[in-house]
Amino acid sequence: MLEVDDPAGWYRTLLAARATGELSCEEIVPAAETVLLAGITKLPELAKMGPLPGPESAAEVNIPVRWDGADLESVAERWQGDPPTVLRGLTLTVAFCGFTPGFAYLTGLEERYQLPRLDSPRPNVPAGSVAVAGPYAGIYPRSSPGGWQLLGHTEVTMFDPLRAEPALLTPGTRVRFTDA
After folding, report:
1. Do 73 and 43 lie in a common domain?
2. CA of 157: how far to CAs of 36, 92, 119, 167, in Å?
3. Does pLDDT of 105 surpass 70?
4. Which residues form the Carboxyltransferase domain (predicted)?
């Protein structure tokens, strides 16, 4: 487990090192403040490495959203603006995945748009719900409990175990919200 300032950058560095054979491991898993290396058989000298910047040509996924979330009005008041307009104007980036299979933590919200989680989580957030909490935006891939501010929903399947790549959004992917 590496504790780092730029997990996404280190994730890219470690993927590149694995591709060149400098690193041999089974998995590289970024998180909010760490990168986990599992099944290491060969490790480069990390002190001589650093985080790589994001690629200009990262995959981009457009997610159509129906802006009908339970918290849309209260978020609009707190943001002093229209959440759909704000989110449509951003390109967010998947920093890491977790919580449940296919749940991607999207970074790129300006500090003024960062909101706390709800005081008490909802027992059931519908699959496809588009939400924000703290510095992240996210899309619930399946129905689950959750404490994020709900802004809308999408019909796009975030996680399908039958796909070659089950998670639609993976670290480094750029995401843009559009109107459904």
Report:
1. no
2. 27, 18, 28, 9
3. yes
4. 1-169
Residues 35 and 74 in one domain: no
**Do 25 and 98 lie in a common domain?**
no
176 in Cβ contact with 63 (< 8 Å): yes
- Give the distance from CA 98 to its chain's centroid: 9
Q: Is the pTM of this model over 0.85?
A: yes
| Domain carrying residue 100 | 60-179
- The three-point CA angle 75-80-83 to 5° equals 50
- Find the radius of gyration of the CA atoms of the chain: 17
**Which of 41, 32, 5 lies closest to 171, judged by CA?**
32
Do 137 and 174 have their domain in common?
yes
Model pLDDT for residues 22-69, shown as the tens digit of each residue = 999 999 999 989 999 999 999 999 989 999 887 666 789 999 999 999
